[in-house]
Amino acid sequence: MTPTLYRAAFMHTPFNAFQNEGALHVQQDGGLLVNGGTILASGEFSALRAAHPTARVTELRGGVLLPGFIDTHVHYPQVRIIGGLGRPLLDWLEHVTLPEEARLSDSAYARAVAQDFLHGLRCNGTTTALVFGSHFKGAMDIFFEEAAQTGLRTVAGQVVSDRLLRPELHTTPELAYAEGKALIERWHGVGRARYAVTPRFSLSASEGILEACAALMTEFPDVHFTSHINENVAEVQTVRELFPGHLDYLDTYERAGLLGRRGVLAHSVHTTDRELGQMAAHRCSAAHCPCSNSALGSGLFPLRRHLNAGVHVALGTDVGGGTGFSMLKEGLQAYFMQQLQGRDGLPLTPAHLLYLSTRAGAEALDLHDQIGDFSAGKAFDAVWLRPPAGSTLAAILNHAGSPSETLAALFANGTQADVAQVWVGGEEVYARPADPLRDES
Ligand code: GUN
Ligand code: ZN
Question: Ranges for the Aminodeoxyfutalosine deaminase/Imidazolonepropionase-like composite domain (predicted)?
């Protein structure tokens, strides 16, 4: 097979940007040599061209090529309720979210929602997502079928709960185990799909259902785990009352044996020092969801405390508590929320924002040997951000002085309209229509 040499201005963060000052790597006239979906060599275009004269060249000049975005917390059934503003978490769940999630018992509805959801990811340049699924097994089979059609990488799981939601969303420990096992056996490791064991949150979980989740993880040790934690003060108080014998919210997952290297806990806004210490000890990650935390008024994420405790942090959109699929917007909101915390906040640089929205997600999912940056050996998962001629962002980029300024402008001003093309494993999964306003309305 003839390799392809992509010629682009590209940026990536092959190292942890919180631990390495030089984590941002930039090639103004770069080349990525790709064969069979894998990056064989990464560097200056002219050197790669000379070394590989027979490679087919794909010109991506203009704009910037970045590693595909990695969203570590996003809800498939919630795409159509984005924008339900003005309610705190528990009120929003009861009146906006759960009625919509109940509609996914209808397979035709679930399929249409899955298609809307997956389109939202790819047209925003997200190539991998840790997806909070549906309560219905049928809707999860549909989700994995549709995800396979798009070519996106997904780590997803059926959501399980057995109390305090609404009866049609409740299951039992026995059924949760049986359906989870069937889904893992059918989908985990098939194509680009992986499975995550997903209790909704301890508020809607008995100890029995957490044990059923743990049984799945013991039987299938390489699956992932995800849930919510410490998002909202009323939620935290309710969990305390429901689990009187437990030390704190984390302890409800910890004692059930659910925490490990492939665990991702969403939000973690009101987390105590003990919990942070234990999250670090178990090497699980926090998914910071700044747009959702702002929209639902959940609070200001203590990023500095997480990092000081040794807890790995990545970013999630939390659609539909969050306000959309754009990881650029999420990065910008993360920056804002650190600014608002004064001395407790951590000033984020453009390199931090790129790291948080790409490589940090790959690390949280334990997939950083395959995706997250443009090093040789990684899959060619990429997003080409190329603002339309005449747009404000195009004007800003034309005058940006340094790569860091360019990156800052992309996060500050970039939107879905700037996503020109997206690849997963070397395959195109999205190309912007010639006239997005006319063709996608
Ligand atoms: N906690 C339990 N369920 C949810 C959900 O759907 N969204 C958010 N943001 N938090 C939750
Ligand atoms: Zn969520």
Answer: 30-55
